[in-house]
Amino acid sequence: MISFAHVCKRYDGRPVLDDITLTIPPGAFVALVGASGAGKTTLLKAINRLTAIDSGTITVDGADIATQPLVGLRRRIGYVFQGVGLFPHMSVAENVWLAPRLAGQPPAGRDERVAELLAMVSLPADLAARYPRQLSGGQAQRVGFARALAAGPAIMLMDEPFGALDPVARAELGAAYRALHERMGLTSLLVTHDMAEALILADRVIVLGEGRVLADRTPRALMQARAEPGIRAMIDAALASAARLDALARGD
Amino acid sequence: MGGSVSWAELARLAQAHLFLSGSAVLAAILIGLPVAILAARNRRVRAPLLGAISLLQTIPGLALLALFYPLLLFLARASGWPIPALGFLPALLALAVYALLPIVRNGVAAIRGIDPALTEAADGLGMTGGQKLRLVELPLGAPVILAGIRTAAVWTIGTATLATTIGQPSLGDLIFSGLQTEDWRRVLIGCLAAAALAILVDATLALIESGLATRARARLGAGLAILLAALGLTLAPIPGAATSGRLVVIGAKNFSEQYILAQLIENRLRVAGYRTERRDNLGSAIAYRALAAGDIGVYVDYAGTLWANVLRRTDTPPADAMLRTLGETLARRDGVQVLGPLGFENAYAFAMRRERAQALGIATLADLAREAPRLRLGTDLEFLSRPEWQAVEARYRPAFRTMRPYSPTFMYRALADGSVDVISAFSSDGRIAAMDLVTLGDPLGALPPYDALLLLTRTAAADPRLVAALRPLVGAIPIERMREANWTVDRDGDKRTPAQAARWLAAGLDEAPK
Ligand SMILES: Nc1ncnc2c1ncn2[C@@H]1O[C@H](COP(=O)(O)OP(=O)(O)OP(=O)(O)O)[C@@H](O)[C@H]1O
Ligand SMILES: [Mg+2]
User: Fold this and answer.
1) What is the pTM of this model?
2) What strand order describes the sheet that includes A29-34?
3) Which residues of A touch B120 (CB under 8 A)?
4) Among A47, B200, B240, B422, which is most buried by a count of CB atoms within 10 Å?
5) B224 and B362 both lie in a single domain
6) How far apart are CA A233 and CA A220, in angstroms?
């Protein structure tokens, strides 16, 4: 469980997180949407203390993160970076195996485990020997995803993990992750720009705007509600393109 | 290789040079890298630390080397530990301080230059500070760190030539002694050898650096193999170098006479079965203190110098009284034994061309004072401000027509071409005989005696075999022979090396009156 109580964060006097209060129960799959600069990345990083908040409290599994040992907190949480952040001097296998290595796992089962993790993100095992510079943007992003999963965390924080993927792979990987979420009983927080993706994958969608929670509903409720114009516009844009595609498919 | 440098000597010096430079760079890495890591992490430490290290860098290399001598001497006294103040240790410390700047600066730049997204990823994965350093920062910063080490290595190999002045053998031995004896081939060989070493080391480190940057294992391996081979070479014994027998360290100041005498002493000790090491080009103030501290075992100094600089006396007693007081005081105060005078003086002496002196009827300083209003005096650069000149003025009251200081070479030229009539010379200078000069007598005893004295540490003096090997030198070198030996080394054409001059002196020992 993750909960925020009156969390504030300012950059140069400007509020980026503005009195955020919310609770994400264990096993929830929450999508975080909002315009660029709305504070999504900041909110995610606040949870594993990559960003220090100015005031308020964040607890993970009931314990205030400010009082927890930092390294232990971060190792319990899988984090997929918006900028991927693979280490260029390490092979794919070394990147993916980092979290288990830090946790002191013996290298005995490394190759099988790496292959298994790569398979989870639909990558062939022979990619393991490559270096990040030899990967496409989408491949690199999937390796980053596999790296976050490697330690078997209970909580996954994902910052636009599918941004560089083609639509087919994106839908496929989204579905695959959703299945993993169920199977492993994960708590998932997914940042995305794509309202359709949020509505399809998540149990709950939080819309952030200028550091505030604009809406926090289930996908169905969000679509039915008479939401404020900004949110309505995002949903309508997703619906409109779906309708156009549908019409195209029927040959009109 | 030409007559002035033997292959064995070059190999020995290059080996010492490489060992010293390598140790200094290694020490600088061991100190500099942790400092760089600290500075990269801590903004408040960074600016003052880099400032302080830059400041150290502005101290001239020669001064830095010289400063470590009194510092270590003080530490040795204060702590009571036998810290050697001369030779390897101070040279190592000074060079390591010098090598610190590029290593620290590049280390800081390397760590701070890492893409923040990567350090954030490292944090996000839950790496501890140490893990982040080992797994991310050092490997990614390695090429920049290594570039700093490369700069440090090249600087250090160049600056290590100065280690000679505090008694640590290096390729600088060739340069400094070559400069003193105007043996330009020696100077050139020393410079070229140091430059070649620097280029080779730089190329090897460049290979490792590019191997790291491109993650090319073969290049990295080749570079490391060359480094290891170099390490092996610096530790390998040089063929022909004696490895048994007790070690005696022989000191010498930085002029030809001192090189010749040190070589003479070294040859005799070798024949007697001792291992020897040389500490050449010691500063005048350092040499005696080095002996008193036991860093060197034997060297030649001059009575008047010890009287004024070590005993801080300003009076001028007659020679035998001065020698007696010196012998007793040095032994009692510093445990230094005066084995005896070698038989000649290297004193300040007024010199004139023979025919001019005869024409004017001048044989002594008293005669000179009489004729002084018609004469022009040429001196070296410091003579007119020295106590010797004050004493001459006080006793003889000469009033010269003009008095002009010159650098030594030009002083002799001025005398030769008639620009001056009389000069302040050193009595053992080879040019006195070569130019057929006469030195003037000092009936009132204004000029202090500068008898060359053989000085030993108490330990050396307690070794009868060593004393027996050196005693035949006492009283055995007349001024004419020393002048001749100096002249063969100092003259412009048909130069001899100090080693050749020492052999020539040794050959005459048996004929000389005891
Ligand atoms: N280190 C920082 N210093 C100053 N301002 C920052 C910093 N990090 C983020 N900001 C600002 O905070 C605001 C929120 O940033 P954040 O990265 O959380 O946005 P986001 O919702 O993730 O945007 P995007 O969808 O473009 O990734 C932005 O206006 C950004 O410029
Ligand atoms: Mg973002």
Assistant:
1) 0.71
2) A77-80, A155-159, A187-191, A29-34, A204-209, A212-217
3) 50, 81, 85
4) B422
5) no
6) 16
